[in-house]
Amino acid sequence: GHGSSAARVHFVAGGIGITPILPMIRMADRLGIDWTMVYAGRSRDTIPFLSEVESFGSRVTVRTDDEHGIPTAADLLPGVGPDTSVYCCGPVVMTQVIADTVREMRDVELYSERFSPPPVVNGIAFQVELARTGEVLDVPADKSVLEEVLKARPDSSYSCRQGFCRTCVVRVRSGEVDHRDTVLTDAERAAGDMLICVSRCGGDRLVLDL
């Protein structure tokens, strides 16, 4: 029999969350499944794979924060009702909103993929100084700068935790950066930008503009 009794599938992707969702919509399309998708992101020029996503036509709704505001659960789940399966991947805040809403809906199944940080490879321990307060944080060899910064500054912004999305960019005031992201340009790196979710220190200490 079928793994799922759902007559419809609805996908929700937030920003870089499109990466695992894209192969799923290609498959759904190929199998002739009745599917829809909402793709949310900050702005049209920051979200990846936009042209491919839009090639699926009216099945897809693209909503950007700069044009439409931050999406509500209703914006992300249009037409979702009984016998729908929802597949969602994106920032934790978004997946949480969807989970809380779907929990109240009858006969709707939710499959969600959260972004978790990749394991640190060849890490060495170092220190990070928060320039504005003078606080010094120890970053262990197997932890990211972001993880340690969040302990001291729980409201620090981040999203993908994998060096794709730029949300966690911080200005480095001094220290040598071991850049491990995939998006910053040479000019941005030269200006002192660093993505603290994946990049590390190439020496003993980084001083960050935090």
Topology at a glance:
Elements: E1 8-14, H1 18-30, E2 34-41, H2 50-54, E3 60-64, H3 65-68, H4 73-76, E4 84-90, H5 92-102, E5 108-114, E6 126-130, E7 136-139, H6 145-152, E8 169-174, E9 177-178, H7 186-190, E10 193-195, E11 200-201, E12 205-208
Parallel strand pairs: 1-2, 1-4, 2-3, 4-5, 6-12
Antiparallel strand pairs: 6-7, 8-10, 8-12, 9-11
Features:
five-stranded parallel β-sheet, alpha/beta, 210 residues, elongated, five-stranded mixed β-sheet, 24% helix, Ubiquitin-like (UB roll), 2 domains, Rossmann fold
Q: Helical element count?
A: 7
The CATH class designation of the largest domain is Alpha Beta
| Number of self-contained structural domains | 2
| Percent of residues in beta strands | 25-35%
User: Class by helix and strand content?
Assistant: alpha/beta
What helical percentage do the residues reach?
Answer: 10-25%
Our Rg estimate from Cα atoms comes to 20 Å
Please state the overall shape, judged from the principal axes of the Cα atoms: elongated
CATH topology of the largest domain: Rossmann fold
Helix and strand pattern: EHEHEHHEHEEEHEEHEEE
Descriptive overview:
By secondary structure, this protein is of the alpha/beta class. The protein has seven helices and twelve strands. The strands form three sheets. The chain has a five-stranded parallel β-sheet, sandwiched between helices. Strands 7-6-12-8-10 form a five-stranded mixed β-sheet. It is elongated. The N and C termini lie far apart (55 Å).
